[in-house]
Amino acid sequence: MNNTSSERYTSVTACGQTLVLEVFGEVGAVHKMTLGNRFFIAVKCYPMNSDNPELLAWFFDFYKNFAPLLEWEELKNGWTCYLKAKSQRCDCYRDAFWQYLAGKRLKMVGRKWSAFEWV
Asked: With a threshold of 0.70, does the pTM exceed it?
């Protein structure tokens, strides 16, 4: 495996730290993606080892839409909350992400669990 990044994107977090997304692999065969800065990697993603074909698109969506709004210390937890939000089917994933990040959980209520609430 080639250990040099084929693509690199830069952004800034809410606290002003530089955020670098590095993609390792070729087009159609990305084997690793990292999110961090030059010296520290906060989040890693291995799309080829996953059974989820959308993981690559999810990582780019997290990088573009959520990572710039988070503090540096929240990135790892933010990625975990993003994955939980994308896998649930009750609420919009954007709203669910912020609820999970706030430490809330989804509770099914009503007869036959037909409704939900955040607790």
From this structure: yes
